[in-house]
Write a structure and sequence with these properties.
Length: about 375
């Protein structure tokens, strides 16, 4: 098969999934705008993000040319929203597959919510889709709130390759040395995007309480796609709390280095106020890094509190208590890690999931080809120019 993929090249989702599909022997081209992270096994077509109206029109035209010139058998859009999604919906390539990620149908993840045109763009893309892949069962309700698409939704978690994401003690120790972290330190890892949604400030506020119980604790904060104002506020709070020698801001990390980073950690903390099923959770579980999560319904289909992870209220006190509980109890840490590794292999194995997706692709191609609907596409194009 020849599969055109549309997605954000600055995140790993479309790249990792496209590479996994290509590894099955298919030809994959990623079409996007802006910078693209390193990838393997797929062709990439990108161009600068436009800054003017004329540049936007030119970018949309070449974007569509990059899709059609590949002569794909189908088009797969990763993220049901944004300008990339709208440009993809203007393509005449069908079947159209759309992966729903979370933030595309969860307006609370966006400051000020999603505007009318953005909500329309998501609804239009889902309406045009021949197949919708939801990252979790929980996202089905969010999709239903957008429109009546239940008949074409499948849950595909994608997950991780547990051969790649596994505990690597030597790599973890080497990474600690590289970051200047003592071999005896107890490392708390925050691997999420450095934005207010992810509540990294609550981890900082919890750290003094953690240190009272575990004096060797340190916090490692990754800086993927940072909100600079939020990052500055965090750094100021770290300084005010006297934690400068206990908090490591370590920048953004290549996807290939993430197993070593999880292996360097004693516990992973992920406590956003809204979420789908994040890759970071699957990665930590596969690397046997005990996880502390907020009490979100989205996680319930993968983990049980006290068995594969600890769930906490979004406040410094209960968070600190959970961190100390794991760091002070090797038996608990081992139990959580072992159960998490087994669970992710059961419910979120990338090699198994990508075979499922391949089968879904083939099922679509066995059906009569549906022509792309032209109704509404003029408004789609206009909305693209004014958003």
């Amino acid at each position: 098969m020849r599969i055109a993929v549309v997605g954000n090249g600055r995140t790993v989702h479309a790249l990792v999934r496209g590479s996994a599909v290509a590894a099955l022997g298919h030809s994959v081209r990623l079409v996007t705008l802006g910078p693209v992270l390193p990838s393997s096994g797929i062709e990439v077509r990108t161009r600068p993000i436009p800054g003017t109206l004329a540049q936007s029109i030119a970018a949309a035209r070449t974007f569509l040319d990059d899709i059609s010139s590949f002569r794909p058998d189908l088009l797969h859009v990763h993220y049901a929203g944004g300008k990339l999604g709208t440009m993809a919906s203007l393509s005449s390539v069908r079947p159209l597959v759309v992966s729903v990620m979370g933030g595309d149908v969860q307006p609370e993840q966006h400051p000020g919510g999603l505007g009318l045109l953005e909500r329309r763009a998501t609804r239009r893309l889902l309406a045009e889709a021949d197949l919708i892949l939801a990252k979790s069962d929980g996202l089905r309700a969010e999709i239903a709130a957008v429109g009546d698409f239940v008949g074409k939704v499948e849950t595909v978690r994608w997950g991780v390759d547990t051969e790649t994401f596994r505990r690597q003690p030597s790599a973890g120790q080497a990474l600690r040395a590289r970051l200047g972290i003592s071999p005896n330190a107890r490392v708390i890892l925050s691997p999420r995007i450095l934005r207010p949604l992810y509540n990294v400030h609550l981890i900082v506020e919890a750290l003094p309480r953690v240190l009272a119980g575990v004096p060797e604790a340190v916090l490692v904060v990754t800086e993927h796609r940072p909100d600079e104002a939020y990052r500055s506020a965090l750094a100021a709070r770290v300084e005010a709390l006297g934690l400068k020698d206990r908090v490591y801001f370590v920048g953004a990390w290549d996807h290939a280095d993430m197993p070593a980073l999880y292996s360097a950690a004693d516990v992973m903390v992920s406590i956003p106020f809204s979420d789908g099923l994040p890759q970071s959770l699957f990665e930590a579980m596969a690397c046997e890094t005990p996880a502390i999560l907020g009490r979100l319904a989205a996680y319930a289909e993968v983990v049980t509190d006290g068995r594969e992870a600890l769930l906490v209220d979004l406040a410094p006190e209960p968070l600190a208590e959970a961190v100390v509980q794991i760091l002070a109890s090797p038996e608990l840490a081992r139990s959580l890690a072992s159960a998490a590794r087994a669970r992710v292999a059961e419910v979120a194995s990338l090699p198994r999931e990508v075979r499922r997706v391949e089968g879904l692709y083939r099922s679509l191609l066995d059906r009569p080809r549906r022509r792309a609907a032209w109704s509404g596409r003029v408004l789609d194009g206009l909305s693209l120019l004014v958003r």
